[in-house]
Amino acid sequence: MNAYTKLPAPLRFGIPVVLVFVLGLVLWMTMFKPPVPVSVMNTQDFGTYDVAKQLLDTEGINYKEASDKGRFELLVAPDEKSAADQLLAKNGLQDRTGLAKKISCPAAPGFTANKAKTTEYNNCEDSKKVQNMLLQAGALAASVTVSQEENGTLIGPETSKNVSAMVFLPPSMENGGWDATNAAQQIKGAVGTSIDRIYIGDDKMQPLFDGAKGEAAATSAVASGNGCADMANAAEIATKEAAVRSCYEGTIATKLSTLLGGSDRFVLVVDAKVDAVSTSTQAESSTAGPIVSSSSQTGAGSTVKDVTTPPNTKVTSSSKAAGDIGKLAISVSLDKNNVNANQELAVKRMLQTYVNASRKDPSPVVTRFAFPKGTGIAPKATAAPQLATGGSENEAPILAATKTETPKPVLALLAVLAIGLAAAMIIMWRKSVAMKQERARMEQAFQNDQRLFENFAQQNPEALAQDLEALFGAPAAQR
Predict the structure, then answer these.
(1) What angle do CA 461, 465, 466 make, to 5 degrees?
(2) Number of H helices, E strands in the chain
(3) What is the pLDDT of residues 46-64, one digit of tens each?
(4) Looking at residue 408, what is its pLDDT?
(5) 3-class SS at 36?
(6) Of 319, 322, 327, 362, whose CA–CA distance to 245 is shortest?
(7) 378 in helix, strand or coil?
């Protein structure tokens, strides 16, 4: 306590003020701390999750996003939970991946079971096998149906298996990021059926692989890209090649932007060659025109006839529509600073869906190196959230949590309090300095008075009395 009393006056007054300020700030932050958000949706289905966010945005309900182990969660303030629950329930939103439960089959029938029971069990086991393969390939959930169809032949009925699957994919694997062709090939070998009897679709009922068409459905999606209408209608070979490049570049760039999280993380080059069904030809020929004038000259036993005719030039040309795509070459450079090895592998798998073996397309060339500053295409503004990819290709992306910012009124209040505290400290310091100077002046005056009295006390009283009598003209004192 003695040490505190010996402190300078500004510190003696300032320390309690600071303690009161800190205590008040702690109490204020405790009272006004935002409540812990509560969950209104926790789903594996990113499509449902995305629609729920749009609905909450429409109604002006604030929310936070979280993601963990393939599940996507929306959290709102406790006082908004009731409104959010009613909004989502009214729109019938639910985790559709829950409908695609893990398949479980009954016990195997005995050798005495009829053909129908045996077929049902075999179909169930094949469906279970296909579902496990799709889950291992990165799907969040899968609904699989395996059925058998009898086709009559000259020898007898022949049985073929039909495989139909619907997969729920994480966002990083949508838009061509999942290799449906490779999955179909694996299913073909595991189930023992032909590739034309396999169909794989996504949760939006869009085909990812349609074996009946003999190709991945993703390759047909280029019809919606930039320049695709010109590609279909172009007659000139050069025009069609330019349209093909524009169409594929627009489509692939969109998918790469979604897969990598930005269009500034890659540089895409597409080269296309178009087969010439017939080349444009043009021919020019000249013939004699009609007679303009003629003259004849006779002499020396001969007759000479002079005929004047203008030239008659004829030009013929032919042109037919350009043919189909003869070769498609794709090369992509990735920014090593923002794209990891797992994303590079996902890009290679996605680009492989554009390779057509029948026309002998070269394999896509994918390279990854550190881009210099300013390289790549500037990212375009988009309404869709950008997702940060995790460490594994099959791992669901982690959505960046919504940043919480301190309200501006709170910052203004804190600034006013800090300025007020600083001003109070300065005023107290100046008052302390003035008091210290006044105390020093009073001490100096006291010391002067003390020295005066000490000098007075040291003088001879009788001599002092005589001096006073002489000064005031008083008679000498009787002794």
Answers:
(1) 120
(2) 11, 15
(3) 878 888 888 898 888 999 9
(4) 67
(5) coil
(6) 327
(7) coil
